[in-house]
Amino acid sequence: MYGAFPFPSRAVLSTRASREKFQRKYGSITMGWGCSERRVDGSRELRPGSSATAVEAPIRIASCWVHRLPLPTFSGEWAGESNFISHAPISEPVNRKLEPLGPHFLAHARRKRHSRTFSEDDRIQASQKVKNVEDEDAGEISEPEDPTMLNRDPKDWKNQDHYAVLGLSKYRYKATDEQIKKAHRRKVLKHHPDKKAAASAGGQQDDSFFKCIQKAMEILSDPVKRRQYDSVDDNADVDPPSKKSKGSFYKQWALVFAAEGRFSKKQPVPRFGNEKSTKEDVDEFYNFFYNFDSWRTFEYLDEDVPDDNENRDQKRHVERKNNAARKKRKSEDIARLRELVDKCLALDPRIKLFKEQEKERRNAKKNAREAEEKRLAEEAAKKAEEDAKRKAEEEAAAKVVREAGKKAKEEAKKAVKKNRRVLKSSVKDNNYFVTGDPSPAAIDNALNDVELIQGKIDPDELAELVSKLNVSTGADAVKAVYVEKAEDLVSKGVAKKEDFKFLFA
To answer: pTM above 0.90?
Structure first.
């Protein structure tokens, strides 16, 4: 009778001691080569084959042990005719072709193919595993290393960029713990002193950057220390766009406030929005940042406190100094954020739009009346056009219109000349805005500024300016009108402030 038992990976029963141990456990044995069938539970059913010892046989497809067990003795009450029930006939034996498989066979085949010893193969496989780990961790957390960073002094760890050391510059405070672990493992595998020493044939290597890597991992793996470092990580900040910067106003400022919002105790932070945002959403955003509750601390920049017990006074002095420095940095950061919000609010086109809409709501009746007048005028013009087509006096009417337009242009030119004379006379009548006798340079500067304003405005604006000058009395009042107009031109980008030599002096 042949039993079934877990199939050994190698012929370990080739010695006398191992055979005796197997015999004590499973009974009498005979050695031989044969085939086996693997069962569902992982064991193999063994069938006899040609007799041979395990040590004499070369590498085979499979090896097995055949052991014979005595049949159990039946009790006297058991009768085969009455108690035996045949459920199904015994199936015929099946011959199956077995193929070598498993990690041990592959390791053996690899060693034979490359003529390696066990130690050589283990060393090569370990190196390949390290390379595979490096290739696996490369990709999203991989970035080129700065040569200057590799020569950093590990004692100056407070000034080093821990995220850049681990290759996580583009993630920074958004980097997950898993990304930090992978980046650290990759850097250690690449810059470990033992690996560098082996690569240089036993030469002594500088392990300064490896110490920087370990310090960066110490800071970023500790939630408290990482929070302190993120609090002073200026590399994660986004500079606000200037007035001349190109691109979407909303996208650029959204990145700025997204970076600032990482310090908020209240989460989530309201979004900056876009041109379609409602007034309520915009007000909520600005109110949130005007009342910003920041968790930002500056312990990371503290001066090191002496750790000896003998110098307690010095320790207290350093602690008080650090507390004062934190409060100062905190107040400066609050003022900086307030200034940033003020700048954005002044440039936000939605605020101007909301003000115009509010003004339109206040003047709803006036706008309705103007709209009705405009509608009536359009209807009258349409009716007049239809009447003109119907009448034969179209040419005469067109001639009258041309003559009227010509006359209006002439009158407009005369009005412009007159208004320009008024501007020059207003400067002259007010002694060129100086006390005492004006110098030639003062006269030239005053007249040049007035002529610059004349050249930058249209006839309607010129008439409006003259009307303001007519109601202004005194040199200061007249000069204030000119200064106001010059500031308006500068804000519109029509002229530059440095072009005015006198008004902004």
So the answer is: no
